[in-house]
Amino acid sequence: MRPKRLQTWIDSQYENPRGIVGTYIGEKMVRQHRVEVDWTIEQLAVQPGDRILDLGCGAGDAIAQMLRSFDEVHVTGLDRSPTIVRSASKRNRAALRAGRAEVVEGDLGTLPFPEGSFNHVFSIHTLYFWENVPAVLAEIERVLTPGGSFVITYCDGKGDVTWDGITTLVREQFFPSAKTLGMTDVSDQRGPDSRDYHTVAVSGRKTQS
199: which of 35, 41, 106, 125 lies 20 to 30 Å off by Cα? Predict the structure, then answer.
């Protein structure tokens, strides 16, 4: 069993990867999360010309997958980790040069984008780290175009174990905050299991008016 201090440090690397170890963690998550990435992209119903934001983009695999799957879209990735921003930029270097993608460093609670910048916002495995759910949702609502959609993917358990904490957060903070913001079609749905983890996504839309 790992000492508690070491486990805390490892957990912090998943939340905010740093240095050589952080680069390794980022690439490890690319391999681990392919099922969730593919399923999340399917939920977005992307159309030609859409502008898409990946919150907590990690090493940029979802950005690359999105650009391979759809023509005439622009994908922006945001992550708080400078280490991971470098990895995502390297993975998508050609798309950045072609103007099809952008990778920026930033915080989910204060997104550095104008109002109505994106048709879709998605995020995979970041919900556990949202320090202020209403604030992050308010930022997502702000940067979406009227009628734009969001998909937030996470896991709520593994095997026979249910993670009550994340389930409670979604029910008691996420859904009420989305309702307060006037978001529509807000619902959760079960996705495919990944490495015995139970995948869930909460999705919804910004109102048209």
Answer: 106
Cβ pair 49, 73 in contact under 8 A: yes
Judged by DSSP in three states, 44 sits in coil
Q: What is the pLDDT of residues 60-117, one digit of tens each?
A: 999 999 999 998 999 999 999 999 899 999 999 999 999 999 999 999 999 999 999 9
Strand partners, 188: 202
The pLDDT > 90 percentage for the chain reads 78
Tokens of 30: 């690319």
Report d(CA 191, CA 84) in Å as an integer. Answer: 26
**What's the rounded mean pLDDT across residues 169-188?**
97
Please give the Cα distance from 165 to 129 (Å, whole number).
12
CB–CB of 139/108 below 8 Å?
Answer: yes
Return the structure tokens found at 203: 């999705």
Whether pTM > 0.70 for this model: the answer is yes
Question: What amino acid occupies position 178?
Answer: A
Parent domain of 98: 4-205
Residue type for 56, please? G
In order, the DSSP letters of 191-202 are ---BTTEEEEEE
Query: Which pLDDT score, from 0 to 100, does residue 10 have?
Result: 45
Residues 73 and 147: their CA atoms lie apart, in Å, by 17
CATH code where residue 21 lies: 3.40.50.150
How many structural domains compose the chain?
1
